[in-house]
Design a protein that fits this description.
Elements lengths: L2 H7 L6 H17 L12 H13 L4 H8 L3 H4 L4 H8 L1 H14 L18 H36 L1 H16 L6 H21 L3 H15 L1 H13 L1 H21 L5 E4 L4 H11 L3 H5 L2 E6 L3 H14 L1 E2 L5 E2 L12 E6 L5 E7 L1 H9 L13 H7 L1 H10 L5 H12 L3 E5 L5 E5 L4 H8 L1 H5 L1 E6 L2 E3 L11 E5 L20 H33 L7 H10 L5 H9 L5 H20 L7
Parallel strand pairs: 2-6
Antiparallel strand pairs: 1-2, 3-5, 4-5, 5-6, 7-8, 9-10, 9-11
Helix pairs in contact: 2-4, 3-4, 3-9, 4-7, 4-9, 6-7, 7-8, 7-9, 8-9, 8-19, 8-20, 9-11, 10-11, 11-12, 12-14, 23-25
């Protein structure tokens, strides 16, 4: 990729001024990264161009492509943020700063502990090096969680920052083979767990598919190779079958006066693996399912084409989904069906308009392609989940809990529920009426006493399904029950609802929790003979758990958000360090 190739990829609606901004950004990045190399040995500027190229593919505006080119300049070079503000303005500088803050974390180093090992016996060195290795692993885990937390929080400020991060992650995954195996596997697993689902949630399928396949290659190389080889063996025969189906579909639709662009859908290795594992199907069963996509001029033509196909070929029961009437929350619209072809094998069919097809590929990126008003309004409505995410974040103190909540509440399969007024609510699969109540409003959740689904009373542990109309029955006063937090009862399934319930009890019980937490900690310290610790030491330890005062520590212990053992372990770690520094004699000069 060169600058000239990037310029050719820029959207046609770019003005001369837009193209000039991109070229100036390239020159800044080229100078800033001069002499720097990637792990692959290639010049660092190639990475910047690759990130910008992906953003251009997403049809992003010039300021985002320019920020993509310069996304590593403030972090890794002598370029200052003030320089970017002066030369490019606040918008581009803020985007670069957002990406920098997203990735800027302390480095995990083994060297900082090496000085402490001087003068130790070999046995002591072995023990402490082992402890050091564990500390490093724990630190890497904590940093990984913090990276993910920052990624989610960045969405609340400006989703474009996350789009740049996704483009950055995509190129890093393409070049992951140059890193050592443990690092490859860790980054690949993180990509599979977080970044590919994030791309899906934002509706950017072209990035989602590639991230999944690239990550799966390193997470499960044996299975990846097995599926890839089996696909290659039958590729020619499968392509011939698809071409035959495409021609037959075109002919049939043409007879009914429907113009359609039809093509086969590529098979992705990770999606095949998921179908095999989740549905218990053999590779042959998954492989033999052919897929085609129909693009027709407008929405009426979508339904007309569906009728023709269902008349000509027998539809397979329970395989029809109407995502045009009920769009997914990630902007996705299409009709899905499956029919039995002449050879008795299934064909999966997607029917959509060209506009829907573009939205399926670039998702939320389309948000910035529209001016104020008009089509952009629907995108503003559909990023409400990001704003709700930020509201929920205020009730979560623990970074690990926040990330776990993302995995269950944001990235899980979805169901689509109707309110009594007919509004569509997008919920994680497995949600209950209580989860639904808290999704509507915190007060509705707190006062929930029962639920009706499609007009009939149901128990609060009832699992909601797509198409259910849910009415929440509330009391005028009162709050949630502690039983709702009992996982064995299955009353609450989403992290969002759990956090809201805990927040209610924290607010009600602060004084009680404070007294109970103080008593628990003092009792344990006295039992261990550690009661002489200065309160400032405890406050310092509390800050490592994001607790600002001694009272906050007591409340956290009393509400079971923080165990006494974690505080005691921190105290003991500090005590052992002090003892070690006192007892180790200085190394004598040779």
């Amino acid at each position: 990729m060169s600058l000239e190739e990037l310029l050719k990829k820029l959207p046609e609606n770019y003005t001369n001024s837009d193209r000039d901004v991109v070229q100036r950004a390239y020159r800044v990045a080229e100078r800033a990264h001069a002499g720097q190399k990637r792990a692959s040995g290639e010049p660092y500027i190639n990475h910047c161009l690759a990130v910008a190229s992906t953003l251009a593919d997403l049809q992003m505006p010039a300021e985002v492509v320019a920020a993509g080119l310069m996304h590593d300049t403030v972090e890794d070079t002598a370029v200052k943020l003030d320089d970017l503000v002066r030369d490019f303005g606040e918008v581009i500088a803020k985007l670069v700063d957002g990406v920098t803050k997203l990735t800027q974390l302390p480095r995990v180093s083994r060297g900082e502990h090496q000085e402490e090992l001087k003068g130790k016996t070999p046995d002591q060195e072995i023990i402490e090096q082992a402890e050091d290795e564990q500390a490093i692993r724990n630190r890497k885990r904590d940093l990984s969680i913090e990276t993910l937390r920052k990624t989610f929080l960045a969405m609340g400020d400006d989703v474009r920052v996350v789009l740049i991060k996704l483009a950055d992650r995509l190129h890093n995954m393409r070049t992951l083979g140059f890193f050592p195996e443990p690092k490859r596997r860790r980054i690949a697993q993180e990509t599979l767990d977080i970044f590919a689902p994030l791309a899906n949630r934002l509706g950017i399928w072209q990035i989602k598919w590639e991230l999944e396949d690239l990550a799966f290659r390193y997470v499960n190389p044996e299975k990846y190779k097995e599926i890839a080889e089996q696909l290659a063996e039958r590729r020619e025969a499968r392509e011939q079958q698809i071409q035959q189906i495409v021609e037959q579909f075109k002919h049939t639709l043409s007879e009914h006066g429907i113009r359609a662009e039809i093509y086969g859908r590529p098979k992705h290795i990770y999606s095949i693996y998921k179908k095999m594992t989740e549905k218990g199907k053999s590779f042959e069963m998954v492989r033999d399912v052919r897929g085609v996509r129909l693009l027709v001029p407008d929405v009426p033509a979508c339904y007309a084409a569906l009728g023709v196909i269902h008349t000509r070929w027998r539809p397979i029961p329970n395989e029809f989904d109407d995502y045009i009437a009920v769009p997914k929350d990630n902007f996705y619209q299409s009709l899905h069906t499956a029919v039995l072809y002449e050879d008795g094998k299934p064909v999966e069919v997607q029917i959509r308009t060209p506009e829907m097809d573009e939205s399926a590929e670039i998702g939320i990126a389309a948000h910035w392609r529209y001016k104020e008003g008009g089509p952009r309004d629907k995108y503003d409505e559909r990023i409400n989940w990001i704003r709700k995410l930020m509201e929920w974040r205020q009730d979560v103190d623990d970074a690990q809990e926040f990330v776990d909540g993302m995995k269950t509440d944001v990235f899980k399969d979805r169901v689509y529920i109707f309110t009594p007024r007919g509004d569509i609510i997008d919920m994680p699969a497995g949600s209950t009426p209580i989860d639904f109540a808290y999704h509507i409003h915190t007060t509705v959740g707190d006062r929930c006493r029962g639920a009706k689904i499609n007009g009939k009373l149901v128990p609060l542990e009832h699992e909601l399904r797509t198409g259910d109309q849910v009415e929440i029955l509330t009391a005028k006063h009162g709050g949630p029950s502690r039983d709702w937090l009992n996982p064995s009862l299955g009353l609450v399934r989403t992290q969002r609802a759990r956090s809201k319930i805990r927040a209610w009890f924290k607010k009600q019980d602060r004084e009680q929790n404070l007294a109970q937490g103080k008593a628990l900690l003092e009792h344990e310290l006295q039992r261990l003979g550690l009661s002489g610790f200065d309160e400032k030491v405890l406050e310092e330890i509390g800050r490592s758990f994001e607790l600002r005062s001694l009272e906050d520590i007591y409340v956290a212990i009393g509400s079971s958000d923080l165990s006494v053992g974690r505080i005691v372990n921190k105290l003991l770690e500090g005590k052992e360090t002090d003892d070690m520094l006192v007892s180790v004699p200085p190394t004598s000069a040779p």
